[in-house]
Amino acid sequence: MAKFYDISMLIHADMQVYKNKDEKRPQFETTSDFTTGSAHETRLHLDAHTGTHIDAELHMVPNGKTIEAIGLEKLIRSCRVIDLTSVTGGISKADLEPHNPQAGEFLLFKTRNSFEETFNFEFIYLAADGAEYLASIGVGGVGIDGLGVERAQPNHETHVSLLSKDIVILEGLRLKDVPAGRYFMVALPLKLTGIDAAPARVVLFEGVPEITFA
Description:
mainly beta; single chain
């Protein structure tokens, strides 16, 4: 069996959430238990951007495409993990150039964020010039181990540069135990429609060949 890494965040009531906002915390409501019925059932109250998730264009682009527009062929594919743990602040074009990004490539950024168990307001992010550089190359997707791919950008330049070019954005990855290198990625969002994001379970496999979609 191929070795694999589950790079998804565990969803629980005390998990890391963006800017520690209580309204973003998942809630688990017991709607039936064995004192009130014959089965145990739970209702989940969940922000679409909880934990590991995929952003749709609508998230930052008015009238942008919604989450169902991202086909699975963009999410079940080869990818490359890049070690950027030496970076502080924003990941710039200069940080990315030595890794020689290629058109169509799906890049996952392993940064200091993967070693943080609580939200850090100074999290590592993709700077605007780094996003513009990747968009000009035409990468297929970008994943980062922070709960946001940008930080403190009033006009959301990083998001807009990527999403407006149909570049997939994965946020909230956990890459602490994943060495840099090439993998086969399976990133499956909840099958939602009409909204701006979806939580996802993301797994990386070693040594699995590319799959061709009919």
